[in-house]
Amino acid sequence: MNREKYNPMNHCKIIRRRTQSSTTSSTYVGGNLETLPIDLIVEILKRLPTKTIAKCRCVSKQWGSLLCDPYFTKSFLTCSLTRPRLLFTFEFGGKWHFFSSPQPQNGDEQVVIADYHMGFSGDWYKETCILANGFIYLNDRKMLKEKMERVPVICNPSTGQQVHLPKVLAKNKDLRSFLGYDPIENQLKVLCMTVARYREQTNSREHQVLTLGKGKPSWRKIACLFPHFPENFGTGICINGILYYIARRNLNTVIACFDVKYEKFRFIQIDDENSKLYWFLTLINYKGKLGAIVYDRSANGQLWVLDDPEKEKWSKHIFHLPDAAFWIVRSIWATDTGEIVWTRSRWTHPFYVFYYNLERQSVRRVEIKGIEGKVLMGHYRPEAILTFTNHVENVMLL
Question: Which residue pairs, CB below 8 angstroms and at least 24 apart, start in 120-125?
Answer without folding.
Answer: 120/95, 120/96, 120/155, 120/162, 121/94, 121/95, 122/95, 122/96, 122/153, 124/91, 124/96, 125/150
